[in-house]
Amino acid sequence: METEVTVYGPIRSATGDKTVVLEWAGGTVADALAAFVEAYPRAESQLYDGDAVRASVRVSIDGDRVEFEDRVPEGAALAVVPAVQGGSSE
Question: Which SUPFAM superfamilies has this protein been placed in (predicted)?
Fold first, then answer.
């Protein structure tokens, strides 16, 4: 399945473009993220903490925020906003 993925922030340095086409088998948002990292390994540190997707990563399908277990429909467009880092809680 082909899915258009728009990325924001530091993930763009991994893809070289704001929008890329991801070729993957289809499935859930989590599956799409795994396929995205397989295609663009430099994005892994922005999206994952170990084997888990970082809690602050946000994904939307066709403009609507979704959960990682949601299915990605054929022809949908994803937007991926990476984890926000930095700052101080003091």
Answer: MoaD/ThiS
SS (H, E, C) 9-60: CCHHHHHCCCEEEEECCCCEHHHHHHHHHHHCHHHHHHHEECCEECCCCEEE
Express each pLDDT in 2-43 by its tens digit.
999 999 998 999 999 999 999 999 999 999 999 999 999 999
Q: What is the DSSP string of 60-89?
A: EETTEE--TTSB--TT-EEEEEPPP-----
* The pLDDT of residue 83: 66
Residue spans of the domains in the chain: they are 2-81
CATH 3.10.20.30 fits 2-81, yes or no: yes
**Mean pLDDT across the chain, nearest whole number?**
91
Query: What's the rounded Cα separation, in Å, for the pair 35 and 81?
Result: 16
